[in-house]
Amino acid sequence: MEQEIIYFEEFVKVEGLKGYIKVTLTEKKITFEKLKGFFSKKLKVVDIVSIDDIKLYKNKPGVKIKDNMVKINTVKGDYTFICDTQSIAKKLYNELIDVKTGTNAIGRGANKFKKFTDNFKQIVDVFRTGLTVVPVVGGVVLTIKQMVDKYK
């Protein structure tokens, strides 16, 4: 049997469940375990959610963070994790995003930067060539170059 990589493992509160729950995140699933027993304190699996069950909205995972709470939207329903600190919540949030999308924060940042530079290049090209038509108040249509020249 193949060993799964553990990306996050922490005791947190889960809305709707009593006490602290051990949440374990791997590349395939999220496991919820609760301490059972008065003396022995063994872990008992309460729920398992597949990573594939996390919903996507416009190719973005249904994972949100606010303060020390992380909420995930799955096909089974919503889960809200209440962490002891914001840093634990941020770590859980980042790991959930990374596992669901297959990218890490650096990769997501690089993609955003690439989109920004591509957009910036387009804007510079528009100003350089002056070919784009822009409507102006009063129904007059001018190119950006004409507008710049007009208001110099």
Task: Kindly list the characteristics that best describe this protein.
152 residues; PH-domain like; two-stranded antiparallel sheet; 11 strands
Please tell me about this protein's structure.
The model has no long low-confidence stretch (mean pLDDT 80). The strands form 3 sheets. This protein has a 7-stranded antiparallel beta sheet with strand order 4-3-2-1-9-8-7, covered by helices on one side. It has a two-stranded antiparallel sheet with strand order 5-6. It is built from 3 helices and 11 strands; from the N terminus they run βββββββββααββα. Strand 3 and strand 4 (42-50) form a beta hairpin. The relative contact order is 0.11. The protein has helices at 86-101, 105-129, 144-150; strands spanning 6-14, 20-26, 29-36, 42-50, 56-57, 60-61, 63-66, 69-74, 77-82, 133-135, 141-143.
Short description:
This protein is α+β, with helices and mostly antiparallel strands and 152 residues long. It is built from three helices and eleven strands.
**Morphology call:** elongated
CATH hierarchy: architecture of the largest domain:
Roll
Structural class: alpha+beta
Question: Beta-strand percentage?
Answer: 35-45%
Our count of domains comes out at: 2
* Total number of beta strands: 11
> What's the number of helices?
3
Radius of gyration: 24 Å
Assembly state of the chains shown: single chain
Q: Quote the average pLDDT.
A: 80
What is CATH's topology name of the largest domain?
PH-domain like
Low-pLDDT residue spans:
none
Helix content: 25-40%
The CATH homology group name of the largest domain: Pleckstrin-homology domain (PH domain)/Phosphotyrosine-binding domain (PTB)
Order of helices and strands: EEEEEEEEEHHEEH
Euclidean distance between termini CA atoms: 71 Å
Q: CATH class of the largest domain, please?
A: Mainly Beta
